Amino acid sequence: MKRIAFLTSGGDSPGMNACIRAIVKNCLHQDIQPVGIRDGFNGIMHGDFWEMTYDDVNNIIQSGGTILGTARSEDFKDAEKRKKGLTYLLKNKIDALIVIGGDGSFAGANAISNEIGIPVIGVPATIDNDIYGTDQTVGFDTALNTVVEAVDKIRDTASSHKRIFFVEVMGRDSGYLALKSAVASGAEMVLIPEEETNIEKLAIQLKNQNQGKRGSIVIVAEGDDAGGSMDIIGKVKPHMEDFDLRATVLGHIQRGGRPSAYDRILATTMGAEAVDILIAGKKNVMVGHVAGKIKYVDLIQGIKLHALPDKGKLDLLDKLRTKNSSK
Length: 327
Ligand code: F6P
Description:
By secondary structure, this protein is an alpha/beta fold.
């Protein structure tokens, strides 16, 4: 193992830089040349490779985003275009590849391994936390804290004006971030793609809950089957004419910012581990973290299976919802 390449792919997530730093430092420690690839799989297509040094990863553990850049590469899905791109990996004498991203990125890594036979390792990094085989993905904890901080602020104005706020959080296909942030912010309700939304029932529950109450928060996952926060307000308003409803879309602020200590530790542990297991001869696995310990999952499983949010938390929110409030 002389040259290990790595890239970040898909939506960026806080902690990706900490992971890059750990890979670079562990490679150099073991006399391996770390080779960063810029802009995700697009960098393979264009041969955009960067032989990295200690200096390149100084002072990046605390920064959000990714110094390598990232992309959702459509071209890479095209087998013909990919073939040309893969010649750059061969020309650059890359012995192995680490892909930091979500399950779509792992599918790209798997295709590379099938086509040119090099070992690949996946490091799960996405704010969605929807990856099978790990308790948490790099970036989820930071995004969760960002949402909770925002909801705390929204609650101030919601209660001052006695309004019901529908706060939309990211999660095109997953309600993980929505559910956890609902519990952590004390939201009254949550709508997630994994659970069918019944608008009439929602209106009844909100009305019961809000008799005299000083405002409420409903967290909406962007991928909910009834739509985003604006759509839901449009549907629910005819059933609750007397209530003051507002929508807030948190958007990409959830993807940025300084990674939390938890994400830095997770990213550093997983990045360093990815290098160690390549040296030890492992291939085509994802590095997971379960119950405080590193676990490996076959990359194919990581691609095919998805982590689902714990629906028990919906019951928990039900239990905590105010009954016949008079304040
Ligand atoms: O990276 C995951 C994610 O943040 C999803 O939660 C969200 O639906 C999507 O990316 C947004 O992607 P983009 O930034 O490409 O619009």
